[in-house]
Amino acid sequence: MTPDDLREAAAALAAQALGLPELARARTVAAYVSVGAEPGTGALLDALCARGVRVLLPALLPDGDLDWGAYTGAAGGEGSLARVRHGGRMELLEPAGERLGREAVTEADAVLLPGLAVDGRGLRLGRGGGSYDRVLARLERAGARPALVVLLYAGEVVDRVPAEPHDRPVDAVVTPEGVRRFRTP
Fold it and tell me: Are β-strands 117-119 and 124-125 bridged in parallel, bridged antiparallel, or unpaired?
């Protein structure tokens, strides 16, 4: 995809996601900053902040788990995000401010999840690090029931992904072209 294609896809993804009732009524959304070829999340994050939504972004911990920090939006200036290189692995944009702890995600009304694919059962295939599996387990242990939404390109919605016993279905997948629900809001 060209840079223009990526920008258009990110804008379309944001428009589709912002139309979700789960995000319209959310006061706190746990999200992420897209990397590499992932569908762009910047426009969506800034639109949520503009609505007055508290946006939590992850910070990768050495053990692969996630801590969380608040994102204040583009208006928050460059100090809102920091580039962090994790060993020889990827470089991520993470919240630059105070860390709120691993449990902060349990306060979210909706959790936006990255993934490589989602299948017809609503099962998400991640990158294999287990960070978001830990998040989903933490939500379950806390009795938290946020809306779980994966952001993908249409070609990443597939018939079947490999599944493990701990995998849990998501509520919806959003692509630049539309929304597919696996559970009614």
Answer: antiparallel
